[in-house]
Amino acid sequence: MELRKSYFADQRKDGLHEIGQPRPRLDSPGHVTGKTAYFADRNFPGMLHLKMVRSPHHHARIRSIDTSEAEKHPGVVKILTAKDVPHNVYTILILIQVGPEDETVLADGKVRWKGEAVVAVLAETERAAQEAAAKVKVDYEVLPAVFDMEEALKPGAPLVNEYHGQNYYLYDSGECRKVRFGDVEAGFAEADHILEQSYQSSPIEHAPTETTGCVVMPEGNDRFTCYTNTQAMFFTLDNTSIILQMPGSKLHFVGGTVGGGFGGKVDVIVEPIAILGAKLTGRPVSFIYSREEEMQISSPRAAEKVVIKDGVMNDGRIVARQVTGYTDAGAYSRHSPYGAQKGAAHYPGPYTIPNVWIDTYCVYTNRTPSSAMRGFGVTIGDFALEVQMDKLARLIGMDPLEFRFINAYRDGDTKAHRQPTEGAALIECMQEASRAANWPVAEKYMAMSSYKKGA
Amino acid sequence: MAIRRGRGVAAINYPTGMNLGGDPTQALVHSTPTGNFMVTLSSVDLGQGLKQIMAQICAETIGVPTDRVTIDTADTDTGPHCMGTFASRGTHRAGNAVIQAAKEARQVMLEVAAEELEVNASDLETDGQGNILVKGAPQKSISIFDVALSAHFKRGRSISGRGMFLIPRSYPEKETGAMKPSTCYAHACTVVEVEVDDETGEVTVLTVKNVFEIGRALNPKMVEQQLVGGSWMGISHALYETTEPYYPNRDHGGTDFNQYLMPGPGDLAQTEIIVLERPSADGPYGAKGPGEMCANPQIPAVANAVFDAVGVRIDTLPITPERILRALKAQAAN
Fold first, then answer.
1. What is the ipTM of this complex?
2. Which of A14, A91, A271, B209 is the most buried (most CB within 10 A)?
3. C-beta separation of A423 from B281 below 8 A
């Protein structure tokens, strides 16, 4: 790695004592010698293991649940169903006033994705819990499912989630988050060329070294200590308090040393049910995802579809950009309404375009609920935007890097969401990339600056 | 049939912190009797090194070496509220809270030192090595060790401080989308060179040159570990990863690392990282959040390089050999 101190030197105070110094990490020796303690290193006498009975169907009505055989299985201590969860229908963003509550801790009457939690089994060993889970009998009536976002948005599509009433999230702005800036139709009318293209991604996994989980200890004072690898301590504690209808003062969360998050540990899935298990049995409880659960049950990054329509001039200026983004939330909201909205704030990318129209939709389908992941709401948008930029440059016969200089945002430019640009540095990054990659661009672009307007 | 070379570029920006703000983080700082400093937080270290960065920020602000600072975090019985470690917010939000808390503690520390030295607190400065000096007369000084002892046992003062950082929440205007998503943005430009085997569809990333603008490299070695890791993750996202290979079909999802593929050590591209620093107006010592940004530009850069190599556009992620071969077949048929 090289620090290029020549850029922005006038804006920076160098020569500090600790800041800017490559100090060795205080936690590195523990990490590399295996001495760092993670949540799963807690092992208490009498600890129970929790395993989930999961839906084998993408969409089904639950006619009945029979746990009688599972209860007789050696080592089984407690079996939990929806009726045991005090506030079973929840949504995590309710803490920042983003509703409605739309998900069940344990399925109640219906399952909406393959893998959804239906029954929790607590047993003396992992093996006993797993074997007993296989003996729980659930009678399902399979319902039509929808997996494709376009199909889900059509009239008459199977309804994924009754708490929403339609297969998209209803924002205060309507069926999508909207950004309107300038006159996009006028921009298309004046453009030398129009290019409309569609981009698609598939769900991906966070793939942390350490899978999601927690260990819960019921303390002697009616409190519960939860050792967890959540990425957000109080967010998880407060949501648990709501789900369990338990005062937050009864909950003590300990964490902060995590083997990789990437956005995969912000959903508040394992803690509430494990604490409930500890409360109802009076014993410590461990609930740790297997690698298979981490990959197919815990939320992935959403699949997204992005449609971009651009109007571009022969001289390289983009004069209009219309973006329609679709985020596949799966069966429940989790953080997806936030992510789709973040996309609306991000488009049209780091470019100054006078006419912009953005619609971003959060769509429900019968698949594993997606949620936050590194680059949430932006990563797939950047893939679409930057491939589109390459296509536009080639369409007008211009070098792709020079084409970006022409459109790059600079200090003082007004963005589509009506904020003035501050602290831009795209141009300098491209100038340095031009040098580093031996990708020459015209001198006028190398003379540009993010904060001194004019080429 | 041949191995074909191509080159692609992408340029991006990325917001620091939760979209639309409204995401608080608090910090508390206090000294021990012998002048070590405790920072109490509830922020989570995901492995990226948040604790180390908070220690360096506190040390710089108080004026002591980093090894005099201990981070006590992520215990809800002791740590004040942090919204969480996500949205490229840890360094920016928690760092600002730590600075505010450390400044308050530093002020008490200087007041106690001023009483001991019989000068005004405003005439004092720290040397970063654990001493407090009179400006312009550095021979007149006192160690922070002695100041802490005095505060605890003689003067009855608590060398401590409270810190809070919150960007007020912005609500998008319904019809126009007018809003304030973020206060600062990190930037990147990435150039990728690939080889594509037009017989097998296999893509080899030869080089990836990343230029990242991150506000301020608070600890350059840790910046490097995060940016190199992010660059690898971006390439993996572009070419390898999905839990649903035939999305929207739900079948064929991987359940372990034998089925869910990522590039291994033998597949690593020659990686170059160049860092620019344009300090953000509201960042701790100018820092922005590059944690998410650094994994994004490689994806479109790889896609553009594949087109440059073999002349087919793969507009669906991941860019698998199967998709490339199908596109080449369709191209040949036209």
1. 0.97
2. A271
3. yes
Could you say which residues from 203 to 222 on chain B have a Cβ atom under 8 Å away from some Cβ of chain A?
209, 211-213, 216-222
Closest residue of B to A232, CA-based? B84
Question: How many other CB atoms are found less than 10 A from the CB of residue A155?
Answer: 5
Domain membership of residue A425 (yes or no) is no
pLDDT in tens, A57-81: 999 999 999 999 999 999 999 999 9
Q: Which of B227, B255, B296 sits opposite A296 (nearest CB)?
A: B255
Whether residue A2 and residue B279 make contact (CB cut-off 8 A), yes or no, is no
Domains of chain B: 3-16+183-333 (3.30.365.10), 25-165 (3.30.365.10)
Q: In this structure, what is the dihedral angle of CA atoms A307, B21, B280, A447, given to the nearest 10 degrees?
A: 20
Give the residue from B46, B71, B288 with the most A CB atoms within 10 Å of its CB, the best one to mutate. Answer: B46
Q: How far is CA B279 from the centre of its chain?
A: 14
Domain boundaries, position A368: 177-204+300-396
Is A430 a domain residue?
A: no
Contact between A421 and B281 (Cβ < 8 Å)? no
Q: Do B212 and A177 touch (CB under 8 A)?
A: no
Instruction: Please report residues of A whose CB lies closer than 8 A to that of B231.
Output: none
- Peptide bond before residue A74 is cis, with ω within 30 degrees of 0: no
CA distances from A342 to A325, B16, B180, B187, B237 (A): 11, 12, 11, 17, 20
Tally the C-alpha atoms within 13 A of residue B48's C-alpha that lie toward its C-beta.
Answer: 31
A313 touches chain B (CB under 8 A): no
Whether residues A134 and A248 share a domain: the answer is: yes
Measured between CA atoms, the residue of chain A closest to residue B254 is A295
- Assign A455 a pLDDT band (cuts: 50, 70, 90): very low
Taking a C-beta distance cutoff of 8 angstroms, is the pair B113, B148 a contact? no
With beta carbons less than 8 A apart as the criterion, state whether A78 and A130 touch.
no
Q: Which two tokens stand for residue B289?
A: 């959040």
Q: Which of B317, B320, B322, B323 has the most A C-beta neighbours within 10 Å, making it the best mutation to test the interface with A? A: B317
Same domain? A313 vs A211: no
Whether the CB of B96 is below 8 Å from some CB of chain A: the reply is no
Nearest partner of A70 among A122, A136, A124, judged by Cα: A136
Q: pLDDT for B284-315, tens place per residue?
A: 999 999 999 999 999 999 999 999 999 999 99
Q: Does B271 lie at the interface with A, CB-CB under 8 angstroms?
A: no
Per the CB < 8 Å rule, is B84 touching A266?
yes
Residue A298: count other Cβ atoms within 10 Å of its Cβ.
23
Cβ within 8 Å, pair A3-B180: no
What pLDDT band is residue A373 in, cutting at 50, 70 and 90? Answer: very high
Residue of A18, A167, A407 to mutate when probing chain B, most B C-beta within 10 A: A18
Of the candidates B112, B116, B108, B146, the residue with the CA atom closest to the CA atom of residue B130: B146
